Amino acid sequence: MLNKESFSWELYNRAPIVGIVRGVSMEVIRDIANAYLKAGLHTIEITMNTAGATEMISKLRSEFNDLNVGAGTVCNMEEYEKAVAAGAQFIVTPIIDEVVIKTAVAKGVPIFPGAYSPTEIYRAWSLGASAVKIFPATQLGVQFIRDISGPLNSIKLLPTGGVSLENIRSFFEAGVVGVGMGSSLFNKKLIRERDFEALAVHFSKIRAEVKGF
């Protein structure tokens, strides 16, 4: 058992996928987490605009030792403080909020701020981001990652939005340190039908695409 009060980079590096849980109910989160771990995935974020987000974070922290549990869609200090109080081990933002980033860095909490343009990406990194969440990556795609990685080759990139089973490998081939995946990872139909065995198989297929990176 690896747990740890703080974020485990060892667990993250085993499968550098940040699973984004948004809008699911408390009653299925445990089953989702079990399927997630069964597939060899270890890093999961609960978005703060999910009903009961802080309770879910606390629940996962207390019940699953080999999960990194973080908070997503953190846009201000009020949300940051609630997330950390609930036990969040890392923070993900859709935007650059300098106070949130600086606070997380000062406290040693890994933070993945969202950025879109080269200027935003560089700014987020210079503030101390653990990696910069390229968001939304849907329109930008793999070519944008390659283009950015030329002049900004020292910056760790974590594209989010538009990453799927079909293209995840190409993002890693372009040199990213991880990806964020939401609806393409947490299949709504399977969750609605509570087919968690099939969900674990789906997770495993995605996990297999990043082995070796």
Identify the CATH homologous superfamily: Aldolase class I
**How far apart are the first and last residues' alpha carbons, in Å?**
24 Å
Give the fraction of residues assigned to helices: 40-55%
> In total, how many domains does the architecture comprise?
1
Radius of gyration: 16 Å
Strand content: 5-15%
Note the main sheet.
4 strands, parallel
Low-confidence stretches: none
Averaged pLDDT: 95
Brief rundown of the structure:
It contains ten helices and nine strands. It has helices at 9-14, 26-38, 53-63, 77-86, 98-107, 118-126, 137-149, 168-173, 188-192, 196-209; strands at 17-21, 43-47, 68-72, 91-92, 111-112, 114-115, 132-134, 157-159, 179-181.
What does this structure look like?
The chain has 213 residues and is an alpha/beta fold. It has one domain: TIM Barrel (Alpha-Beta Barrel). It is built from ten helices and nine strands. β2, α3 (53-63) and β3 form a beta-alpha-beta unit. The model has no long low-confidence stretch (mean pLDDT 95).
Describe the SSE topology:
Elements: H1 9-14, E1 17-21, H2 26-38, E2 43-47, H3 53-63, E3 68-72, H4 77-86, E4 91-92, H5 98-107, E5 111-112, E6 114-115, H6 118-126, E7 132-134, H7 137-149, E8 157-159, H8 168-173, E9 179-181, H9 188-192, H10 196-209
Parallel strand pairs: 1-2, 1-9, 2-3, 4-5, 6-7, 7-8
Helix pairs in contact: 2-3, 2-10, 3-4
